[in-house]
Amino acid sequence: MATHSRQEMATQTGRESKMAKTENRDDFNPEQVKNLSSVLNALLADYFALYLKTKNFHWHMSGAHFRDYHLLLDEQADQIFKVTDDIAERVRKVGGVTIRSIGHIARLQRIADNDLEFVPAHGMLEELQADNQALAHSLRSAHEVTSRCGDYATTSLIEVWIDEAERRAWFLFEATR
């Protein structure tokens, strides 16, 4: 069994890290990889923020329609979370690196947290509706970037994610009427 010094291991890790950042897949040039990674990582941070907020409201739901809202938010959270792996894998497939920590998410997210001790059920639904609409808007902007870069696979996925975000917003809107 070969033993490696810390310096050799650090050098190897540095090479692997550099390779991970610069390896180009699918014929995207470095500028395209940067643009795709940037827009997708921002989306990924938003998805994690929206997932956690949806679960927060799911856990703290109360009121006359508790069961219905509790189940609705659980279903929506599951759908939101499932997209996170697809986004991260697209970043890696195009040759980029993706987020690595909660802190990284916090620096990139555009969906605001809600740390209030109490939010009425109606307020929760309205806030999540607005967040899903904002996510759909961000997805449309990302769609423009992925289209310009010729990333047809991501562009296609984003079209599905727009529909899902709009559907979640619609359900939340109808539940507040």
Largest sheet: none
Bin the helical content.
Answer: over 70%
User: How many individual domains?
Assistant: 1
CATH topology descriptor: Ferritin
Which class best fits the helix and strand makeup?
mainly alpha
- CATH architecture group name: Up-down Bundle
Q: Strand share of the residues?
A: under 5%
Model description:
The chain has 177 residues and is an all-alpha fold. It has a single domain (31-175), classed as Ferritin, core subunit, four-helix bundle (Ferritin, Up-down Bundle). Helices cover 76% and strands 0% of the residues. The protein contains six helices and no strands. The chain has helices at residues 6-22, 30-60, 66-93, 102-108, 121-148, 152-175. α2 (30-60) packs antiparallel against α5 (121-148) and α3 (66-93) runs antiparallel to α6. The longest helix has 31 residues, at 30-60. 32% of the residues are buried.
Task: Fill in the keyword field for this structure.
elongated, 6 helices, Ferritin, 177 residues
Task: Please write out the topology.
Elements lengths: L5 H17 L7 H31 L5 H28 L8 H7 L12 H28 L3 H24 L2
Helix pairs in contact: 2-3, 2-4, 2-5, 3-6, 5-6
In short:
With 177 residues, the protein is mostly helical. The protein is 76% helix and 0% strand.
